[in-house]
Amino acid sequence: MIFYRILDLPPLPEEFLHHSQLKEDTSGYNLVQKLDWGYDHYLNGQLCTPSASRAFDIKHPDYESWCQKNLPFTGYKKIYVWSGLIDNPAIGLVHHDTTGKIVLNYIYDTGGDNVQTSWYIEKDRPLLRNRKPPGTQSDTGHVKYDDLTVLEQTVFEKNTWVLMRVDVLHDIRYITGNRSMFQIRTFDQSVWNRCF
Ligand SMILES: [Fe+2]
Q1: pLDDT tens track for 77-99
Q2: Is-contact 37 135, C-beta < 8 A?
Q3: 48, 49, 61, 195: least surrounded by Cβ within 10 Å?
Q4: In a domain, 41, yes or no
Q5: 28 Rama sector, left if φ>0, alpha if ψ -120 to 50, beta otherwise
Q6: Does any domain span residue 43?
Q7: Does the residue 173 lie in any domain?
């Protein structure tokens, strides 16, 4: 199975990255709870330091018209900004998303030189996961790294458009600083098919 694809799309206009909503104050942000889902998580025997993150949708007509013109295949409804707040080397713990099956990401701040995205299959569980309640790690609850097999790993470069599956268990390793991206989220599988 293919888990991501780099899309040859125009870069986001530079001025979009200076939108006042992207500034580092917390107004307009929903601070997402630190994602440890109530458990200690061990990866290769080491206790993980989970990242905290925040996400909000951009409300600006320039963004909407740019996306309509340049990303018409997404059928987007909202453009989100996802931002990780990192004090220490941290991990975006393994999970599948609540908010979509597929995302189109434009990472404008990678959060480090070697930030790795991995996809996994869990022992005795299906690859593609179902919708889950917010605030949970997976549709079957707690996921342990010891039960996972890596299927794919990659390091995404800055300022590229990446279409990726988020209905498969995935995590983000080796984050050393703030990591930020624009994100278009969808449950519509046809968006995926249209890009292959
Ligand atoms: Fe995710």
Answers
A1: 777 777 776 656 678 899 999 88
A2: yes
A3: 61
A4: no
A5: left
A6: no
A7: yes
Task: Quote the ligand 1 centre to 64 CA distance (angstroms).
Answer: 23
CA 137 / ligand 1 centre spacing (Å): 10
> Which residues are close to ligand 1, an ion, with C-beta < 5 A?
97, 166
Q: How far is the CA of 18 from the centre of ligand 1 (A)?
A: 25
Q: What's the CA-to-centroid distance between 171 and ligand 1, angstroms?
A: 7
pTM over the 0.85 mark: yes
Token pair, residue 117, equals 């995205």
Domain extent for 53: 4-18+49-194
What is residue 27's predicted lDDT score, i.e. its pLDDT? 54
CATH number at residue 95: 2.60.120.10
Residue pair 62/30 in contact by the 8 Å Cβ criterion: no
Amino acid 164 reads M
Tell how far the Cα of 164 is from the centroid of ligand 1, in angstroms.
10
Element (H, E) at 162: strand 161-165
d(C-alpha 80, C-alpha 106), whole Å: 10
- Cα(75)–Cα(104) distance, rounded to whole angstroms? 11
98 lies in a domain? Answer: yes
Q: How many domains does the chain have?
A: 1
Q: Ligand 1 mean position to 166 CA, how many Å?
A: 6
